[in-house]
Design a protein that fits this description.
The chain is mostly helical. The chain contains five helices and three strands; from the N terminus they run E-H-H-E-H-H-H-E. Strands 2-1-3 form a three-stranded mixed sheet. Helix 2 runs antiparallel to helix 3 and helix 3 runs antiparallel to helix 5.
Length: 182
Amino acid sequence: MTNMSIVTTFFLMGRPDASALDISLLGIFLVIYVLTVVGNLLILLVIKVDAHLHTPMYYFLTNLSFINMWFSTITVPKMLMTLASPGGRAISFPSCVAQLYSFHFLGSTECFLYTVMSYDCYLAISHPLRYATMMGVRTCALLAISTWLSGSLHSAVQTTLTFRLPYCGPSQIQHYFCMIEC
């Protein structure tokens, strides 16, 4: 019989040597977060409103802006809660799994999207006369959908394999959000 305790709640401690800076860091990261979200929303709005920007490059840029907006939203609010109050440090095990899955999903989708965007640029430069027929609306949609599905599959596999391992470490983690540590 083995003695294993199951961790149901983690405590995100952040940096123990920087507790005096918590309020300053809270203000700085809140401003950066708001600017990030507003900037990405403005990019989405401008691309939606201006008909001249309805091209494959801006279609992929829309996806990238959407990913970046949510990528920040996965980690920063919990980090702000951790900085704001000691009660905001706790995160449940299922919430940690969801945060890790979302973080890896958006991160890997962003990487796949960069690959697709580089392919789009390659086609535009190498085949300028045939570019419009090679990179049509259907092709753009299929490439974008494939990046989202690939990111979802990659993240599901990685998160599933990670959380199937037994966790026997401390419930206090020296980070501001859930992440895999080597």
